[in-house]
Amino acid sequence: MNIKKYQVIAKVSSDKFVKYHINNLVSFARFLDEKFPDWRFFNVFDQTGVQVKSYTKNDRPETKTL
What we know:
Helix content is 17%, strand content 39%. With 66 residues, the chain is of the alpha+beta class. It has one domain.
């Protein structure tokens, strides 16, 4: 089974960004809600470093993977 991995960069406050390697977009959004309640958006990058998607607090991922 091949698990998709993504690199994500999230804007969690007016001047702070965090970077994570994840494999579940939905649970990552929940994690941001818990750890960084004021998060604004996160960009999703594939394994080659190309941005493939962006999500906001109001436009959230509906599936674990793209």
